[in-house]
Amino acid sequence: MTALLALEGVSRRFGGLAALDTVTLSVEAGEILGLIGPNGAGKTTLINVVTGVHPATAGRVLLQGEDITRLKPYRIARKGLARTFQIVQPFPRMSVLENVAAGAVFAGAAPSLKEGLRLSREHLAFTGLAQIADKPASTLTLAQRKRLELAKGLAMNPRFLMLDEVNAGLNSSEVDEALAMIRRIAERGVTILVIEHLMKVVVSVSTRLAVLHHGALIAVGTPREVLADRGVIEAYLGEKYAARLAGARPAEGA
Ligand SMILES: Nc1ncnc2c1ncn2[C@@H]1O[C@H](COP(=O)(O)OP(=O)(O)OP(=O)(O)O)[C@@H](O)[C@H]1O
């Protein structure tokens, strides 16, 4: 079966630096793929390449077999690929509702701003932001801004949603709420890629993990396989932490 998204030998150079180095990776429809690796490993660059923000300097990106490597970001968004941003920067003077509607219009999920505003109310209800729909985005807390990012992503009516550290800076109950939301989004049939530094979180939510190190993909597999991978333990996790995570992990399929 054709993968929903496939990277074939994808590299992205910034001058002399290979931020991504011949990465080959498939994402199947319906999965939650966790993308992990140390700071500077190339995780955000992978999202930027897929969404056309920093196109690949070599290799190809295929969406259900269609080559999207050189398309502009708005064309890629209109094919159902949405992302959130690690650094949350809503339009500060626009209301929460208007920010979400802007995402819908950008991705062509709404034919007009009016329709975008109507659809956006549903996404605000889903993400628990309905009560503050009319507040200026600049007044939101970090947790609310992260939810706004999710609502904007959903407003793009994605088949594939890439989440860049949506839990960073949240307290543990906020993380639990965000995780429940990610699972509910997946239940709606949206395929998800999640970048996450909190290992316990990414292990609990992901059906598969992919590990980047210095721009190269060093492991892909079930969480159980990846946590036991020698290369991943040496490059990223360390012995003790890997053992602790493996012990804390619920049984596969549970
Ligand atoms: N626009 C850019 N110009 C130059 N170098 C860049 C650019 N974007 C990323 N890089 C470099 O590419 C490498 C990979 O960065 P990237 O942000 O993809 O890593 P990351 O795995 O997402 O890191 P983190 O976990 O810290 O967010 C880093 O060395 C970074 O400095």
TrEMBL record:
GO molecular function, one term: ATP binding
Keyword entries, A-Z: ATP-binding, Nucleotide-binding, Transport
Keyword Transmembrane helix among UniProt keywords: no
Record-linked PROSITE patterns: ABC_TRANSPORTER_2 (PS50893)
SUPFAM superfamilies linked: P-loop containing nucleoside triphosphate hydrolases
Domain (ABC transporter): residue spans on this chain: 5-239
Any GO CC annotation of this UniProt entry: plasma membrane
CDD domains noted in UniProt: ABC_Mj1267_LivG_branched (cd03219)
PANTHER family the UniProt entry points to: CONSERVED COMPONENT OF ABC TRANSPORTER FOR NATURAL AMINO ACIDS-RELATED
Protein name as it appears in the record: Amino acid/amide ABC transporter ATP-binding protein 1 (HAAT family)
Organism from which the protein derives: Aquabacter spiritensis
